[in-house]
Amino acid sequence: MSGDDDNRFRLRPGRVRSDAPKAGQATSFLSKVRKITRQQQAASGSSRSAKGGGPSGTAKGNNIIASGRGVQRGRGASFVRARNLSNGWSHRQPGSRRVIVKSRSVRGAGKSGKAAAHLRYIQRDGTSRDGERGRLYSASEDRADGDAFLDRGKDDRHQFRFIVSPEDAADLADLTGYTRELMGRLEVDLGTKLDWVAVNHHNTGHPHVHVIVNGRDALGEDLVINGDYLANGIRERASELTTLELGPVTEMEQRRKLMAEIDQDRLTRIDRAMIAEAGDRFIDLRQEPGDLRGQSDRTMRLRRLGKLGDMGLAIEHAPGVWKLSERLEPTLRDLGERGDIIRTMQKALRAEGAERDPMSFQIHDAAPTTPIVGRVIDKHLSDELGESLTLVIDGIDGRTHHVSGIDPARIEDARIGSVIGIGPPDGTGRPSDRAIAGMAEDGIYRPSRHLQQIRFEGRVPNGDCEGFVDAHVRRLEALRRAGIAERIDADQWRIPADFEARAAAYGVERSARANIRVLSTFDLERQIGSDGATWLDRRLVGAGASNLASSGFGNQVQEAMDRRGEHHIEHGDAARQPDGRIAYRRNLIAALQEREVARAGEELAAKKSLPFRAAPDGETVTGTFTGTMQLSSGKFAIVEKSHEFTLVPWRPVIDRQLGHEISGVVRGGSVSWQLGRSRSLGL
């Protein structure tokens, strides 16, 4: 063997061992050190919590660790562990730009229709920079296809929603490019491509971005994101990008921002800092000699405390020592929310070309206690990550009302300009409760006796007597769980003397949402010249102008009613009497509705190539429910047979029967639908 052979290195790969480390799994000495450090930190954190320290116990420490929400699970966990090892999140570092990130995960959003509703509302009119409809974009498309996005996520277990709001968003050159770069960094941290769309909103004082992410990763598996990454990691990445583009926040800039908060009627960063430092609600701001740097902070806080003192939320206990009110934080939060609401209401009124005195604004935290009637001037999400809606209503009472927590399904047909009525929850009892109370003898209800009675009367839809009584028993089961009824045996139920009142109160308690009616989907101008029965007509022949205010929308309604009366005179449906009053034809509402339905039916027949036939009162209508039509007289269901179709008044109970055979009896301008055992309308 030569000397060269002794010095030559030959690579001889061995066989792949079964215990080889998995891809992405670090086995270095540093990784082992980090693992042991995490375990020690977790143990020390647990012991602190066990002793009652909680989050506040570590607030002033240097070792800030994650909250523990899924630290060991989900994509982004390695990012979280790295930040824990390096003593906290970098967005806490001096000079970092503040970014607020809100997140929410919605289960089954594609199947329940919540995804489509949320996507529709974040693209609503007036959200873009120029006041137009919000534009949906994605990583590669400036105009993303929302329907295709929804279709891709329709079977996902959950959907992620984010709101990213940089404090200095107005200074960013391109909010869309910023969002794309942020989502790119998130994909790197999570180790997968994300299916997302976003909309930029400029309809508030702070531009922000709504991002929706479908719930599957690049491999088609459920996308599970680490809890602490959702809570902190996204905010850190957003802060890094903002700081990179605009540069670190200088001390002078930070001081200017804080000075601007001194006189604000909301919870500010100055307030949060003082609350965190105050012991037993006392904060000591006595001057310390030689502390020139702290003098500026002291002056700023004293000015803020002067403002809080005028509001009754702080008092100077001794020279330089202030006591903060225990109501300080909730009061300032409420004031901030109220200020935001008032600005929203004023903006909605200005868009309508109207001005109202803010003293006439009425903000309803729950369902209004007295009925409200008015036109919708704004309709938006109450919580921009959720589905419930907020309405701003210009009332006929001269007030402008703000009502939140509205179920979108209740006002699906309402548009800006539509007339609606909102009142307290319906406190009337169910027909089933009245039937149970009526059948009870000596406080005992017997299903067997009820069954005999209805068989004798023979008035149950489709003759399904057993199903009718079973529905009453199911109602009693629900009331039993609420402690209102008591089951003695299979055929005996104990019913209290105040059963109906308690059952009605139980219904109101469970359904605290406001009672909403869409009175007209058409605005006043379209109602004036309509050939159908409008909301104005019902007021003309009913309540009239008794509850109309002399200003605002009430005055507009009065003028519209006068013009509607002249319209009826011109078309022979009314005549002016010698005393100046207007006499309307008999059965005006029914005649107008019949006229409009006939006209709409003929127009629809030309499109369907199928003859239209009006359904007279008392006739049984049978056919396939194929759709709806919105007229000024109301909403009508299209019921088709093989050789003809008809239009009959719609009711919410038939919505789930779309595309199926339905049957009902036309009675007095309405329809009593007979939908079988599963849908008994007698309950």
Structural descriptors:
683 residues; alpha+beta; BirA Bifunctional Protein, domain 2; Arc Repressor Mutant, subunit A; six-stranded mixed beta sheet; 38% helix; globular
Characterization of this structure:
The chain is α+β, with helices and mostly antiparallel strands and 683 residues long. The protein folds into seven domains: 31 residues; 157 residues, BirA Bifunctional Protein, domain 2 (2-Layer Sandwich), CATH 3.30.930; 75 residues, Arc Repressor Mutant, subunit A; 93 residues, OB fold (Dihydrolipoamide Acetyltransferase, E2P), CATH 2.40.50; 80 residues, no CATH class; 64 residues, no CATH class; 79 residues, OB fold (Dihydrolipoamide Acetyltransferase, E2P). It has a six-stranded mixed beta sheet. A five-stranded antiparallel beta sheet has the order 1-3-5-4-2, with helices on both faces. A hairpin with a 7-residue loop joins strand 10 and strand 11. Helix 8 packs across helix 9 and helix 15 runs antiparallel to helix 16. The longest helix is centred in the middle third of the chain and has 24 residues. It is globular. The protein starts with a helix and ends in a 10-residue tail after the last strand.
